[in-house]
Amino acid sequence: MTARAIAAAVRSGERSARSVVEEHLAAIDRREAELHAFNLVTGDEALTAADAIDAQVAAGEDPGPLAGVPIALKDNLCTTGIPTTCSSKILEGWRPPYDATVVERLSAAGAISVGKTNLDEFAMGSSTENSAFGPSKNPHDITKVPGGSSGGSAVAVAAGFAPLALGSDTGGSIRQPAALCGVVGVKPTYGRVSRYGLVAFASSLDQIGPFATTVADAAALYEVIAGYDERDSTSIPEALPTVLDRLDEGVSGLRVGLVTELCQAEGIAPDVATRVVAAAEALSAAGAKVEEVSVPAVIYGLSAYYLIAPAEASSNLARYDGVRYGLRVDAPTTGEMYDRTRTAGFGAEVERRIMLGTYALSAGYYDAYYGKAQKVRTLIIRDFEAAYERFDVLLSPTSPTTAFTLGAKADPLAMYLNDVCTIPSNLAGHPAMSVPFGVGADGLPVGIQVMANALDEVTMFRVAAALEGALA
Amino acid sequence: MASLSREEVAHVAKLARLELTDEQIDTFTPQLAAILEHAADVEALDLADVPPTSHPYPLKNVWRPDVPRDAGVRDAVLAAAPATQDGMFLVPSVLGEAP
Amino acid sequence: MTDSSVLPEGWGMVIGLEVHCELATATKLFCRCANNFGDLPNANTCPTCLGLPGSLPVLNETAVELAMRLGRALNSEINRSVFSRKNYFYPDQPKDYQVTQYDLPTNLGGHLDLPSGLRIGITRAHIEEDTGKLNHVGGGGRIHDADHSLVDYNRSGVPLVEIVSEADMRSSEQAKDYASELRAILLATGVSDAKMEEGSMRVDANVSVHKLGEPWGTRCEIKNLNSLRSLGRAIDHEALRQVDLLDNGETVRQETRHWDEASGRTGTLRVKEDADDYRYFPEPDLVPLEPSAEDIARIDAALPKLPAARRGSLADAAGIAATEGGVVMAVERGLDDLALAAIGGGADAARVLTHIEHNLAVEGAESLSAEHFTALVAMETSGELTATQAKTVLAEMVTSGQAPADIAQAHGFEALDTGALEGIVDGVIAAHPDEWEQFRAGDDKARGKLTGFFMGKVMHASKGQADGKAATALLRTKAGIYG
């Protein structure tokens, strides 16, 4: 059942929230050991929450728009009293004393968390292989990666553990695993969804967003979590337009641009490119005007991202020092305690990025690296602006290939190339989403990326809905 | 830019409070150098007239009223801390660390 | 020109001060925890000021207001500003970075005029967050011998403004005056309660010495100055220490030194490396501040009268220079409004200021009624009260709030009227005919001594209520001495 169907059934009393949760816990039971979507399944808490929802319904109270809908939460979202590890040894067992804003909003909407999902450590990665607690597996083929960093959340939805999940996206960490697992994944406009309670990776790039099996479900979840939050100074104060009620408006007359530099980027597999062409044709058939468009500066996106994101991360992760929370490795001096704690607590990819970021910010190198990268950002924003004068949405592959084999991309640089299509939207702060659109030569899912201008989630969702409809 | 040296990697690890073994420095150095090499295309651009973007969405003057509120997390935080004494966080000797 | 009288001939010192003031806000800079001194350790903490994962900063609007107000009080330019992260590891820094302002501070430039008239330039003043407090345990509480340390984050995140002066001071006196005047401005504007002993105003001094006519020397930074007195002592000690080194052919090492009040010496705290690599970058979690012209105009219009302007007004009313001790003291003690009212009411300005300087350094002086004060000075000027009597009456006016006439009457202080006085003088003359003959016939020197003799008798006979001047004048008149 879709999330919306579940909510309708629970709200009307047709189904109990408890039975919904039990059903999903059973699904988790069957395949979780194999897939490792979760760091922690919170079955008891979910059943307790379900009973509370059922009581509300019985009492005639409004249980919320997502009443009784199970949801999986990426384990970098703070949940009071429930371990939030970021899949890192340095936060193993750490229980936050507060909830992330999105967690509060989900609770108010009646959604029920069934667990905290696995991720690449501190959200740094594209395969979930950087988790300190073991990788997650792609439900379509367990020898393959689910993508990352929100791999666990993508798996949870793809495997039917929950109809909804939340992930975070800094360079593609929602969209890419969504594409590899054949589900819908959305990165909203930067500032649309509060980052309060999201453990920070790269503050000017991070956004929380929905995973779902359908575009409509994703839209419903988006509407619950998005909107101004006074606790996040980068939160957009503008009122949030609704999206769900406009999904069926179709794409007649919309101008769709295929981004040349992304569609033809190095490493785009032919079977992925084929699906992009098919998507373009489908939109054309539905009445859209589809053309190629150049957004020149995006070719510098990867380089700029791998200077900016690690730089901000190196600062955001400084707080993991053994003093106030998390892992502490004892030592006779505080200095030694810092060194030993951080070395023992962080995995190789996190260490690599911290060092890269520290270097990019260090004296003598700031202007050449971090400083330049922030200017490239300006170029990318300008080129997107120019494109949006002639087009309503832009299209590209989400991921260059279908899911690759676990262990196949040991070289960090090779792994980074997975993000070539997703990164530009993070740098620009624009909304983008991945919609499943068929399979590749190996039968594994392919996702199409739909990008829109800042604040234009409506058009983005409309086009995504049209693509989804074309496949139906 | 000259490619990254082993000494630079060791220095950066120190700044970042990471205690790397020689083997790790040997492994990291070429990896980091390769990434920076890839970033050389950015480094080579002439962007003298381009302003940097540090915030993708242009907000300004965001603030809140000066009204107190008790967050009520003190006890939970102290209980979960690695080491405390008398309601304070305990750390070993900080000699040599003063900023 | 040098004021450095503590240094040997031919040497000069250069001083710049960095002052951190805690802003008088109800909450911290980036979170809604209470900004209080002395509460239970870690009572005022939250995810943000503890640096918990996932926490975010939200700026306190009053902190911004106060920072801008201080900027205008120091004649600074208020600019578009951006917060930056200063990255370094230390246990009192919960995020292991401090949010501060680096290349784009709120206030740029400005100046502060000392009571002496000397103008000290201000380089900049910016907003930043305070750190927590480290308590060193074991080894006498000093960091060097401590076994371990305990961290209290109540102070972490408290809003600070850091004011950096130009290196315009040339003596410890000037430095103390600067700190004192800055404090007065902070109090007058309500920006900070500026208590050095409580740490809400922290002064660090940068000191260097040079041979006059030669380039400036290497400077050292001195920290841990908890009073104006410490500030003065430490600067003089440090300057002499540097002169000693240079005189012995050694060099001054650029470093941060710690003032130890007990021993009266500075000691090395930390040698400054070439540049600590703080890896500053713009804070992504906060957005830029862009004050409008209207904001600045509103702040300007609401500025209270500052100490320099107060000194000017009082000096004008009294017809003397603003650098005069009485004027400076009156403003320093917050008694200038009282002085102005008294002078405006006709009281003699010199007497008013003398009283303020010498007799009103007491608690409660500011609640003295201007009307009463004016009346008292008038009684003095007219001869009704002697200077000694006036001092007594004034002291009681402060404690009791009563009118001077009533107090004088209660003491029986009414100065004798002319008739009664003449009667007493006549009586004394009659009782001492020989001395009177000598007084009448004698020369100036003899008369001087005899005046004292007769005055003593007159005072005794009048129980001290005689006005000395009036009595002396009567003696001379009766002796036929004019002029």
Write the layout of secondary structure elements.
The complex is a heterotrimer of chains A (472), B (99) and C (483).
Chain A: H1 3-12, H2 17-35, E1 38-41, H3 43-58, E2 70-74, H4 101-108, E3 112-117, H5 151-158, E4 164-169, H6 175-181, E5 184-187, E6 207-212, H7 215-225, E7 255-259, H8 260-263, H9 270-285, E8 289-293, H10 301-316, H11 334-345, H12 348-361, H13 367-390, E9 393-397, H14 412-416, H15 423-428, E10 432-439, E11 445-452, H16 457-471
Parallel strand pairs in A: 2-3, 2-4, 7-8, 7-9
Antiparallel strand pairs in A: 1-3, 4-6, 5-6, 5-10, 9-11, 10-11
Helix pairs in contact in A: 2-3, 10-12, 10-13
Chain B: H1 6-15, H2 22-38, H3 40-43, H4 74-80, E1 84-85, E2 88-92
Antiparallel strand pairs in B: 1-2
Chain C: E1 11-22, H1 47-50, H2 61-73, E2 77-78, E3 83-87, E4 97-101, E5 107-108, E6 111-113, E7 119-129, E8 133-137, E9 148-152, E10 159-165, H3 172-189, E11 201-211, E12 220-225, H4 228-247, E13 255-260, E14 265-271, E15 281-282, H5 293-302, H6 307-318, H7 325-332, H8 336-344, H9 349-358, H10 370-381, H11 387-400, H12 404-411, H13 418-431, H14 433-441, H15 444-461, H16 468-478
Parallel strand pairs in C: 12-13
Antiparallel strand pairs in C: 1-10, 1-11, 2-5, 3-4, 3-15, 5-7, 6-7, 7-10, 8-9, 11-12, 13-14
Helix pairs in contact in C: 3-4, 6-7, 6-8, 7-9, 8-10, 10-11, 13-15, 13-16, 14-15, 15-16
Account of the protein in words:
The complex is a heterotrimer of chains A (about 475), B (about 100) and C (about 475). Chain A has about 475 residues and is of the alpha/beta class. Chain A has a domain at about 5-245: Amidase signature (AS) enzymes (Alpha-Beta Complex). Helix content of chain A is about 40%, strand content about 15%. In chain A, β10 and β11 form a beta hairpin. Chain A starts with a helix and ends with a helix. In chain A, about 70% of the residues are buried. By secondary structure, chain B is mainly alpha-helical. Chain B contains 4 helices and 2 strands, in the order ααααββ. The relative contact order of chain B is 0.08. Chain C folds into 3 domains: about 10-300, no CATH class; about 305-410; about 420-480, Arc Repressor Mutant, subunit A. Chain C has helices spanning about 45-50, 60-75, 170-190, 230-245, 295-300, 305-320, 325-330, 335-345, 350-360, 370-380, 385-400, 405-410, 420-430, 435-440, 445-460, 470-480, and strands at about 10-20, 75-80, 85, 95-100, 105-110, 110-115, 120-130, 135, 150, 160-165, 200-210, 220-225, 255-260, 265-270, 280. In chain C, a hairpin with an 8-residue loop joins β11 and β12. In chain C, α3 (about 170-190) packs antiparallel against α4 (about 230-245), α6 (about 305-320) crosses α7 (about 325-330) and α13 packs across α16. Chain C is elongated and about 100 Å long. Chains in contact: A-B, A-C, B-C. β2 (about 90) of chain B pairs antiparallel with β9 (about 150) of chain C, so a sheet runs across the interface.
